[in-house]
Amino acid sequence: MARKKRRYELGREPVYTHIAPVRRKIVRVRGGNYKVKLLRGDVVNVYNPKTGKTEKAKIISVLENPANPHFAQRNIITKGAIVNTSIGKVKITSRPGQHGVLNGVLVE
Q1: CA distance 33 to 66
Q2: The domain that contains 96 carries what CATH number?
């Protein structure tokens, strides 16, 4: 016999991070912990593997997003997305909708 989902089994709507001045949302999750969700972001922490240094870069646009091809047209940032920044192409390594921060690795 089927039953409805319990409150603790319910999921939430996905957070699609857009390019705009930073806005975050703090959500209480199971166990009383908190999760920071990044609603909008325009700066990414870029790691340069050649120099071993990390610096901040301004995001210009989303070039491609393997999660969904339409996300690139809508400038939605998820993990694995390639974004065009002030210092070059960057691949996003963090999960902005779950971590609340944009981290990436320089591709070029």
Answers
A1: 30
A2: 3.10.290.70
Strand 17-19's sheet: what is its strand order? 23-28, 34-41, 17-19, 76-77
Distance set, CA 59 to CA 19, 21, 68, 103 (Å): 7, 11, 19, 12
pTM for the predicted model, two decimal places: 0.87
Query: Residue 65 belongs to what domain range?
Result: 14-106
62 pairs with which residues across the strands?
A: 83
> 55 with 43: CB under 8 angstroms?
no
| Cα Rg, the chain, nearest whole Å | 16
The per-residue pLDDT for range 35-54, each reduced to its tens digit, is 999 999 999 999 999 999 99
